Amino acid sequence: MFKTRYSLMIGAACSLLAVGCGTSAKSDTAPQATATGCAAATQADYDPPIKPADFSSTIDNPLLSFKAGDVFKFVQTEGGIVEQDTMGDTKLIDGVETLTVHDFLTSPEGVVLEDTFDYFAQDKDGAVWYFGEDTKEYSGKVVSTVGSWLAGVDCAKPGIVMPANPKVGERFRQEYLPGEAEDTAEIVDLNASVTVPYGSFDGCVETKETTALAPGDVENKYYCPGTGLVSSHDVGSIDAGKTEDLTSVNGQTMP
Asked: Which pTM does this prediction carry?
């Protein structure tokens, strides 16, 4: 993503300074502009109608619910720990009151590597929507906020993370800000079984999640009734074989 943003800045500088970049050879063919921002969203034909009155910060979808005070912990293959805390805070985004969920990744030694605030809302039909994130990634003292976005800012669009009534083959955008947030998902199974340190689950919904920003990044996720997300498996060419599994809920290691 950084490379994309950097390339866009170089292109903008060339236009403003009216100087050539790269080869100096002339061409009779006008260069094709790359759509960005609002133009890109229009070009992608993605503009979900958002009526604030149709949304709520109360999220009780059986497959993905968030209750203030809940604390979920996950362990990664390499020992990293992800903690997800549902806060009682709300944030108004694109006119919609969203619920704030704080999640952060620490190394096995306890060093914070990533710190993110995610924003969710549920529509009147029961689908859970993702309205953006404020994220920071740490590498020593260096902090990156690449990947942060909010619906309604620079024509970013919210997306669905869990449909009200998922169906096999159903595909949907989970977020949309060209060059920054382009995750999509597909429902691949409605009756999956999965075992994680927290327990064994049946009747789970399995999704396949991809992003146009990194075609090799493919992840299967398992959402189980009454619990929510319990496991994520990397199955693409990027990080293949790595997992992130639920270990505890509110301090309890077994349901």
From this structure: 0.83
